[in-house]
Specification:
Layout lengths: L2 H16 L9 H8 L3 H13 L3 E3 L5 E3 L1 H24 L7 H8 L5 H10 L25 E2 L8 E7 L4 H9 L7 E5 L6 E6 L11 E3 L1 H4 L2 E4 L2
Antiparallel strand pairs: 1-2, 3-8, 4-5, 4-8, 5-6, 6-7
Length: about 230
Amino acid sequence: MSRHGIASEDYLKAIYQHTEWQPDLITPSALAAKLGVAPPSVTEMVKKLAAAGLVTHVPYGPLGLTDSGRLRAAAVLRRHRLVETWLVTEMGYGWHEVHDEAEILEHTISDRLLERIDERLGHPTADPHGDPIPAADGSVPRRPARLLAEAAAGDVAKIVRISDRDPRLLLLLADAGIRPGTAIRVLPSAGAAVIALALASDGTSAAAVGIQLDAASAAAIWITRP
């Protein structure tokens, strides 16, 4: 794939991901920061994507995807998340190691190999971090969720998604026995910190000590009712 093709996919994926877990559209300046590029580069690429019928936007306004753009973005995310799942399940990678590898492989893996991986894994619906894996037709399962940062002391919840952007956070949570699917209880804490205690299947504490998370970490974890 050409450099332009890879860049186009990265833009579409970033726009799509911004609204996966919250409703507000991404702004050009936020997109530039997310991709680590200069604002003029975003302006130029957005014009090309809009001309191709993939992106909708008005000058200085937020960016959205057309139906075609959403399908293209979902296809890239399907590749990325199946590769992450494969690397963890079959190749012995830790869940904190796979993001950068998948960023490369998502642009190079063939459709045939991707479908073989999907079949080998038993057609998973979520990656190791809890992100939904789009189906081959672009459909994506939606699950209601809220941020751990919004939980109150005493709440019992289940972890459904953890952002893979911070490998240190993933290692910290893994050491505490907390992953997508883990039931937790939120403990009282001071200030903006959140303390989560992993629970066993019978509702008792699975860890002797809760894990204290700062505001940024608590805003990278999504929960739902157990």
